[in-house]
Write a structure and sequence with these properties.
globular, four-stranded antiparallel sheet, alpha+beta, 226 residues, NADH Oxidase
């Protein structure tokens, strides 16, 4: 029996139904932003949820730079479009055709940019739990981003993670101190709708793997005994 076959069907009365619904509805948003205002209390709730993420040694190594300035966002978008061209030039004809249909950012269309950074000095030098896994702090920042993304979705907001940029460019653009690492630029704002199918899947770039292809038992590569 597969794992998927053992998962009970969720109904409106299932205690976790709302959470699963938000997880399934979450999308990486590009085209759907309206540019409308984000209610300040909703933004505060979303940032609070991000800040309540678990972190290695309770180091809380994240910072959130809220970017509304149009000139900064336009400069960042120009950089992202240039990096898109660099990536596109590496593709074969079939992949290039698929990539041409994909929008990789919603920087100026969204209401707000949130740059999330990682500060490895937060809680240092003795960060409990980081001595053997140096990247544990970076993983903590990603947990904060996931909290932000899910709560934003629950608030009716869209989020798009922009990854077509050079870290040093973003550091200079936002005056991020040299010891901090820019981890993400998130486009955030109200949306017209959230797509039923993720963009990359809809445009044929990649398809989601079945759960059973990525679950192993006791050792990597061991399948479930049937």
């Amino acid at each position: 029996m597969t794992i998927a076959g053992r998962v009970p069907q969720l109904t409106d009365s299932t205690p976790a139904a709302d959470l699963y619904e938000v997880i399934n509805r979450r999308r990486d948003v590009r085209r759907e932003f309206t540019g409308g205002e984000i209610p300040e209390n909703a933004l505060r709730r979303v940032l609070t949820a991000a800040h309540r993420a678990p972190s290695v040694g309770l180091s809380q190594p994240w910072d959130f730079v809220l970017v509304r300035d149009d000139s900064i966002r336009r400069a960042f978008r120009e950089h992202v479009l240039a990096e898109r061209s660099v990536f596109a030039a590496q593709l074969d004809a079939e992949r290039a055709d698929a990539f041409a249909k994909i929008k990789v950012e919603g920087i100026v269309e969204s209401s707000l940019g949130i740059a999330v950074t990682y500060d490895p000095s937060r809680g240092a030098p003795q960060v409990l739990g980081r001595h053997a896994i140096a990247d544990a702090g970076l993983y903590s920042v990603c947990l904060a981003i996931q909290n932000l993304w899910l709560t934003a979705t629950a608030e009716g907001l869209g989020v798009g993670w922009v990854s077509f940029y050079r870290e040093e460019f973003l550091r200079r653009l936002l005056s991020i101190p040299s010891g901090l690492r820019p981890v993400a630029w998130l486009c955030v704002g109200p949306v017209r709708t959230l797509a039923d199918t993720p963009d990359l899947e809809r445009h044929g770039w990649r398809h989601r793997l079945p759960l059973d292809e990525v679950v192993h038992y006791d050792k990597y590569g061991h399948g479930r005994t049937r």
